[in-house]
Amino acid sequence: MSHVSIYVLNQDSAYEFYVNKLGFKVHTDAPMGKGMRWLTVNAPDQPELEITLMPISEGMMFTKESAATMRELVKKGTFGFGVFECKDIYATYEELKAKGVEFAKEPKKEFYGIEALFKDDSGNWFSLGQKQ
Amino acid sequence: MTTENYPKVYLYRRIVQAKLFIDNNYSENIDLDNIADEAFFSKYHFIRQFKKIYGKPPHQYLITVRIEKAMQLLRTDIPVSEACYAVGFESLSTFSGLFKRIVGLTPSNYLLQQQTIKTQNLKTPLKFVPGCFAEKKGWTKEQF
Predict the structure, then answer these.
(1) Nearest Cα residue in chain B from A92
(2) Is the pTM of this model over 0.90?
(3) How many domains would you assign to chain B?
(4) Tell me, which fold does domain A3-130 have in CATH?
(5) Closest CA to A37 of B112, B139, B90, B31
């Protein structure tokens, strides 16, 4: 897979979260006219996968109603988009917590590895994992 | 389970705080001995624990942070010498040598490369957007 999308409520705020808090790298940040912007980031050790921070706004992809519905669903934390693996979950957890990232679950040993759960600035949640 | 119960929680917190101190003060003349003192470690214990968690000793980590910050500045068209001093290096030749070793390009070549990408982003943004997304968004070649 080369691209994956995360639906976000606001691209500026998502930039702050993914780049300045999680430490992701900006891959492409291009203005597309009429206030639109193509913004993709990479996880630090995964430059081959572009994560598109896709705004939920009325336009070709969403009707007014579906955009409103989607925004509500994202805000409510309906969607879990995946797992970010890290080398040392306790260090990553302490760092992200110090930067104000909201965790729904602290690192815990499970049968498949150590796992924590956090939310992004929009409400999407992710697992933070470390294999054992 | 509470956070207090995971292994070596206090050690982790002190090392993470030291790492965040470097992240926030990279442009200053950081004395790594002071960081070890602040973290209540002997210098050698601190370096060992830091390396265990972050894969490199604190002084190497500081260099990496400075080079990454310099890359960010160069992406905003800042001249090489300005980027060098802004991130805490005192010598342009030291900066250039370390930059080339870590990034694989000299700072000047990196600046040129980024200027080219920026121009392409502005002139032909569709080059960077997969067709399926562009179509869904209604972005066409005629527009760009």
Answers:
(1) B16
(2) no
(3) 2
(4) 2,3-Dihydroxybiphenyl 1,2-Dioxygenase; domain 1 (3.10.180)
(5) B139
